[in-house]
C-alpha cells in the first residue's frame, strides 16, 4: 500500500512539473487543448446598408461634409533688429542673425461652393495670412490663393486648383429659413478635425452687434467654437444656409449663441468678387443714428420712424443734393426707411451713378431730394 502511494505521489509531482514547463514555454499548446467558447453573432446579409434611424440627420451631414474644408494660414513675423547686429566686432564673433521672428499660424474652416475650386470663408480667417493651405475632408491638401475679400461682411473668396472635380455644397432654391428650423454647423473646432453639431435657428436678422458694418445674422444654438469660423451652416437637407462667423461667449467656448452670415449675402458677395475681384456698394456720405422717442420729441416729430442724419460729409453726394444734419430720411425711391440699418442696406444696394429720390422730414415739412449715388470707399488695408 505504501508503495502504491509513493508511485501516485511521484506521478502527480511529475504531471504538475510538466504542466508548469508547458505553461511557461509553450502556453499555446495548453490553449489549443482547451475547447474555446463559441459566441453566436448575427450578421447582416452581405451588401446590405444600414438605413438611417428615424429622425437622423446623417444624410444631410454626409451630403455636405465633403464640401467643408480646413484652412491653415501662416504669417511670417519680422522682429526688430538689435543695434548690436550692426557692430562688425559682434558679427565677427557671433555671425549674422536673421531678422525674422517665428511665424504665426492659424486655422479655420471654409466651404467649397463650386466644383472648379472657389471656396467661401470668413475674412478674419485669412486677412493677415501670407500663405494659405486648404485640406479637404478626404485628406487632400492644396495651396490656395486669395481671389478677393469683403471686410464689411467678413467674407472672403479663395481659389484652389485641382485637376479633379471638387465636391461642392448645394445652395437652397429659396430663402425659406425660419426660426425653429433644425440646422447643422460643420467645421474644424480647435483643430480637432471635422465636426458636426446640431441646433435650431434661434433668431433671424440679428444686427447692431458691433461685429461688422453690414449685419443681418442668423442666430443658432448649434455649437460653434474657435476654428468653426468660415464653416457651413446647413439645413436638414444638407443645403448651405449660412457661413458660421462668430459666437457670444465669456469663456471662449460655445454658450449656445452663435451667428452665421445668411447665404443670400454670401452668394451676392461671392458673385461680385468672382466677377470683378471686389464688392461695389452705393454710398451717399452721411452719418446716421437711431431716432429715439426722446430725439423725435426734441425735433417736434410725432413718431420715431426713419433714420436721423447726424452728419453730412462735405462734398459728398448727399451734401450736393442738399441733405442737412438733423434731417430724417423716411423713404428711399418710395420704399419706407424703418431704421438706420435698413437705410444702410438700401443705399449699399444702389449701383453707383444711379439717381435716387430721398424723402426727408425737415421740421414740419417733407422734401424730395434727388441724390446721385456714389461708390462706397474701400476700407483701408484691403488689397
TrEMBL record:
Per the record, a Pfam family?
Trypsin_2
- Ranges of residues in domain PDZ: 273-339
The family this protein is said to belong to:
Belongs to the peptidase S1C family.
| CC terms in the record's Gene Ontology section | periplasmic space
Keywords in alphabetical order, please: Hydrolase, Protease, Serine protease
Q: List, in alphabetical order, the Gene Ontology terms for molecular function in this entry.
A: serine-type endopeptidase activity
Keyword Protease found: yes
Domain of life according to the entry: Bacteria
What protein does this entry describe? Answer: HtrA2 peptidase
Any one Gene Ontology biological process term?
Answer: protein quality control for misfolded or incompletely synthesized proteins
